[in-house]
Structure formats: C-alpha cells, structure tokens
Amino acid sequence: MKNTYKQQRIDLAAAFRWTAKLNMHEAVANHFSLAVSADGQEFLVNPNGRHFSRVKASDLLLLDANDSKTMEQENAPDPTAWAIHGAIHRNHPDARCIMHIHSKFATILSSLEITEIPPIDQNTMRFFKRVSFDTGYDGMGLADEAERLSASLGNNKVLVLGNHGVLVAAQSVFEAFDVLYYFERSCETLIGAYQTGKELRVVSDEIAEKTAQQWQHMSSLSKLHFDELKAILDDSGSNYSS
User: Fold this and answer.
1) What is the 3-state secondary structure (H, E, C) of 150-218?
2) pLDDT digit string (tens) for 11-41?
3) What does the alpha-carbon distance between residue 130 and residue 109 come to, in Å, rounded to a whole number?
4) Which of 37, 65, 102, 221 would disulfide-bridge 26, Cβ 3.0–4.6 Å?
5) What angle separates helix 6-21 from helix 220-235, to the nearest 10 degrees?
6) Quick one: pLDDT at residue 3?
C-alpha cells in the first residue's frame, strides 16, 4: 500500500463504501478526510472524481493542509475538498476525521428556514444543543466560504451547512461515521414527522439533555458499529482494504 498509515486508510475506505451502500453520498461530489499527523495538518482524503463505492485504501491522497501548491500537483484533489477540509484541519487540529456529505434528509433540513432539531426521539435527543448551523451560504466551498465554515463549526461535532448539506468532525473514523449515520437518521425522523402535519411531541429540555448525556456514556458502541460494518465488507469479498 502506497505511503503509510495502512489502518487509517482501511478505516476511511470502509466509511466511503458504507456511505455509498446507504445512499448518503452524492455522485462524486462529497469528501471525507482523516488527519494522520500529530498536529492534524497532514491528512488523507478521497481522490478527485472517484465514486465512494470504488474507493480503496491505496487510492487515498496524503495532503498537507499548509501546502499552498497542493492544487498544482498532478493528482490534485477536488478544489472544494481541499478548501473545506484543509481549512478545518488547519483550524481544528483536534478534529481528526471530517466527513461532508449532501445526504437527503440532512440536506432537506439545511434548506429549511428553521433548522433546529427538536428532541422528539432518542436519536434527535443525541444532538440536543450539540449542532452548529451555518446560514451564510455564498456559493461553492472555496476560500472565504471554507474559512467561515471552519469558524462556524465551533466545539460541536455536527455542522449543518445552510442550503448545502452536513459536516461532521470527530476524533476517529468510527466516531465520525456513527455520528453521521445517526444524524441522518434523526433528520429522516424529523422530516417524516413534519410531513404528517401533526403537532410534534417534544420532550422537555431536561429529558433531552439527560438522554444526550446517556448517548455520550455509550460512546463505545460507535466502534462496535463500525467494526461490524467492516466485517460485513470483509465477508462480502470487498476490495476496500487493498
């Protein structure tokens, strides 16, 4: 496998494959990255134009967030991937894994005037007061747009990009994927509830916060979840790890 970081590459490749299986990707327009250096400045990211369902561990590009000549190289990444992920890795060295997609229900949420997530079930309660919202969409994620998104993230793991999609920043691939998965499920439930036209059954702030903290105490489940997803890929004979 070219370069190094074999296990990191394998984990990130598995996340691409499962995102495609769950139909949470959009064509070849979305991007995941994973910091591999101690300072968070060197990171892996998917190559330009590669479908999530075909990404292999050896395909991933190794970039330096501070290299101003990145877009001049022969195998340059997608410009928006470089801008958004480069900015966040520079400004948030603790955000080891960054996942940005235009999944159906999170994107619907990002398109509403009111983008809050009322606590109506256990999944939505996981994100109670733990989501950042950016409402300054100004075109594709380049330069100033990327820096603004980086600032908008704050200390939360989830950033809803108004009129755009969703971004997750976490400590590991398995944590980021688990957050992304449950956030999309939360958005699906919320949008479905809105579609009934009935009044939402919203729990109290106290219950929502209690449940959110209980989710935090069950953080080990995210690795168990991801390990099972990799096992399913392995059982199917997938070449994601090559």
Assistant:
1) HHHHCCCCEEEECCCEEEEEECCHHHHHHHHHHHHHHHHHHHHHHHHCCCCCCCCHHHHHHHHHHHHHC
2) 999 999 999 999 999 999 999 999 999 999 9
3) 15
4) 102
5) 80
6) 58
| Rounded CA separation 132/32 (Å) | 19
Q: Please, which residues have CB within 8 angstroms of residue 155's CB and are 6 or more apart in sequence?
A: none
pLDDT at 141: 55
Going by their DSSP bridges, the two strands 97-101 and 31-35 should be labelled as: antiparallel
Q: Please say whether the structural domain 6-235 has been given the CATH code 3.40.225.10.
A: yes
Token pair, residue 207, equals 């219950």
CA distance 180 to 158: 8
Burial class (CB in 10 A: 0-12, 13-18, 19+), 9: buried
Residues belonging to the chain: 242
The pLDDT assigned to 161 comes to 95
In angstroms, what CA-CA distances link 178 with 148, 157, 223?
Answer: 25, 11, 8
What pLDDT score does 102 carry?
A: 97
Q: Which of 23, 73, 78 is nearest to 46 (CA)?
A: 78
* Mean pLDDT, rounded, for 192-203: 98
Closest CA to 119 of 218, 215, 24: 215
Phi–psi pair at 77, nearest 5 degrees: -75, 175
List, in order, residues 6 or more apart from 231 with CB less than 8 Å away.
Answer: none
Q: DSSP letter at 97?
A: E
